[in-house]
Design goal:
- It is globular and about 80 Å long.
- The protein contains 10 helices and 16 strands.
- The longest helix has 20 residues.
- By secondary structure, the chain is an alpha/beta fold.
- The chain folds into 2 domains: 114 residues, 3-Layer(aba) Sandwich (Rossmann fold); 181 residues, Dihydrodipicolinate Reductase, domain 2 (2-Layer Sandwich), CATH 3.30.360.
- Helices cover 35% and strands 24% of the residues.
- The strands form 2 sheets. Strands 7, 8, 9, 10, 11, 12, 13, 14, 15 and 16 form a 10-stranded mixed sheet that branches. A 6-stranded parallel sheet has the order 3-2-1-4-5-6, sandwiched between helices.
- The site of nicotinamide-adenine-dinucleotide (NAD) has 22 residues, from α4.
- Nicotinamide-adenine-dinucleotide binds next to α4.
Length: 351
């Protein structure tokens, strides 16, 4: 597959190597930073005449099959739409766009041109979340009742992230929101939220959020997230406690007891007549569940799936169309936080 990559500095530099390692051939690179262009060009053997500072020039002068968009979010619509209109399949970094209108236009054009538009929500493309989803789907904890998710890290953000109104929701929580949809195999219907910017943050916009979602079937999700939490590090996935009618799954990659633990609540509750607490014994912290291997993970899984979809015409799991529903959660959460109202999340959004 011949690929053009836009945005090769910052996070794009990791995609340069991932694309190369997954058998894609860079035929052109685009970046406004000449040093980043030069570094990436040297790494993957793209000569100076095929290193560009403008997307239009690369699309006009170089033949390719597909396009990787790792530019800052406010440029995604412009960049990705140009590539789709030039007849290329696109893998675009999250967030796919900075407004629903832009994202819908991207999905519409991809469909019209019959091109694969995929979004890099790679958090779900790892062994552990795929095993957690399977455990839930197989009914090991009965019907899901509620979920508690905690993510805390101290992050110092720079550049465009410092100027966003909601850098945390838009740039980070979007991964966790996408994971919620994936793990529960359901959509969020309502949201309440508070966001704020602690004094230990270095951004203009809000870095911490307390969010409450109601998913299909009344499943409640309580999400605590923050990039301004000195001394905390839950890991990028965060810590998940998923409680159902017959047990609980704890997914916490940092947990000494094992990243995935399953507690089965098999007791006949009707037999108890006195106050009872089912505190796990120290030696029985649930059943550790090994995560089944899915083969290539993260970026590599994204790239493998993108290729299969381009070759077969199949829709990727994290297609642009699917991702509209993750974006809807992000925008509704921002609205809930800014208006201090409970917001219904619309899902009749596919163009
Ligand atoms: N999936 C993830 O886990 C993950 C992690 C980090 C970043 N990202 C996403 O990747 C994207 C880029 O983020 P980043 O951290 O690399 O940002 P960045 O600002 O560090 O890097 C962006 C790159 O794009 C270049 N650029 C800027 N304007 C350009 C233009 N007009 N044309 C071509 N290139 C241009 C910059 O010079 C820079 O090299 C964002 O959408 C971000 O959310 C995703």
């Amino acid at each position: 597959m011949r690929v053009i990559q836009a945005g090769v500095g910052g996070f794009g530099s990791s995609w340069v190597y991932a694309l190369r390692d997954c058998g894609y051939t860079h035929v052109a690179l685009i970046d406004t930073d000449p040093e980043a262009l030069c570094r990436a060009g040297e790494a993957v053997g793209v000569p100076p005449e095929r290193r560009f500072t403008r997307v239009e020039d690369a699309l006009e002068r170089v033949d390719a099959d597909c396009f990787m968009d790792v530019t800052p979010p406010h440029l995604h619509a412009l960049t990705t739409l140009a590539a789709l209109r030039a007849g290329l399949h696109v893998l675009v970094e999250k967030p796919m766009a900075v407004s629903m209108t832009e994202a819908q236009e991207m999905v519409r054009v991809a469909r019209e041109r019959k091109r694969v538009l995929m979004v890099t929500q790679q958090f779900r493309y790892y062994d552990q979340p795929r095993t957690v989803r399977r455990l839930i789907a197989e009914g090991h904890i009965g019907d899901v009742d509620h979920v508690v998710t905690e993510f805390q890290i101290q992050g110092l953000l720079f550049g465009w992230r410092q100027r966003m109104r909601h850098p945390f929701l838009m740039d980070m929580a979007i991964h966790h929101f996408d994971l919620m949809r994936y793990l529960l195999h359901a959509e969020a219907r309502r949201v309440m939220a508070r966001t704020w910017n602690p004094t230990v943050s270095n951004t203009q916009g809000d870095m911490n959020a307390f969010v409450w979602f109601e998913f299909d079937g009344g499943v409640r999700v309580n999400y605590t997230g923050g990039f301004a939490s000195p001394g905390c590090d839950t890991g990028w996935n965060g810590r998940w406690v998923i409680t159902g009618t017959r047990g609980t799954i704890i997914w916490n990659p940092r947990d000494d007891w094992g990243p995935i633990r399953l507690f089965r609540q098999n007791a006949d509750l009707s037999r108890y007549t006195e106050q009872t607490f089912f505190t796990p014994l120290p030696e029985v912290w649930g059943e550790p569940i090994p995560a089944a291997s899915i083969g290539p993970q993260g970026h590599h899984h994204n790239l493998h799936q993108w290729r299969v979809c381009m070759e077969s015409g199949r829709e990727p799991e994290t297609s642009g169309r699917d991702n509209l529903h993750t974006l809807a959660m992000v925008f509704a959460t921002m609205e809930a936080a800014d208006s201090r109202r409970e917001i219904a999340i619309a899902h009749d959004i596919e163009p």
